[in-house]
Amino acid sequence: MDFGIGVFTWYTTGYDGMFMTFLGCVKSQMLILREAASTIRQRTLEKMNYSKNIEIFRDDDDPELEEKLYSELRLCALHLDKIRFRVCNEIEEIFGYTILVQLLGSLLALASSLFSFSHVSIGDSEMFSTVEYISALLIQLAMFCHFGNEITETLATVGFCLYDNDWFSASKRFKQSMIIMMSRLQKKVYISIGKFSPLTLATLVTHC
């Protein structure tokens, strides 16, 4: 029986670790995208060997520069859509319902442990093992919600970084595309638990 419990524990730990690793990779991609969005002009000028002190009042006066700037913005938009709609959805499809079952089981175990704890005398040896078990359950729930919340919060900041790029002299189509991207980013993206509830810190506080 101990061997079976050990195997199940290692399986659960590995599954949870893989899920959080994927979420960490998604966050890393968004941090890279955030930096790329805020440095579109600087990177483009460096690629074209322009002087850092050059003053350009209208990008339309330099068609080659305008085209490269717009291409960089399109790359950011394509990468953003890939993260939001493809990667996040695939993670939900793979892990969503399994994580839901795990969280429901953890919440039931937490409730029963708290009930048992209320009947344990202070100083009893059983009290310490119960406290350790409750702490482990809370840490598991907190880690799920923390990593899911990081995805939501990091993606929400991409729009601000996009606004920080030096767009004042940009062409009309560049500004229009930038406004569309920022408008779309106003809708928050959540990693959901089996399509029922988002993995956020608010969910953790509500249920625990």
Automatic annotation (TrEMBL):
UniProt-listed GO biological process terms: signal transduction
GO CC list: plasma membrane
Spans traversing the lipid bilayer: 94-115, 127-147
Keywords: Cell membrane, Membrane, Olfaction, Receptor, Sensory transduction, Transducer, Transmembrane, Transmembrane helix
A GO term for molecular function: olfactory receptor activity
InterPro entries assigned to the protein according to its UniProt record, in alphabetical order: 7tm6_olfct_rcpt (IPR004117)
Membrane topology, record value: Multi-pass membrane protein
The name this protein goes by in its record: Uncharacterized protein
Protein's UniProt keywords contain Ribosomal protein: no
Entry's localization field: Cell membrane
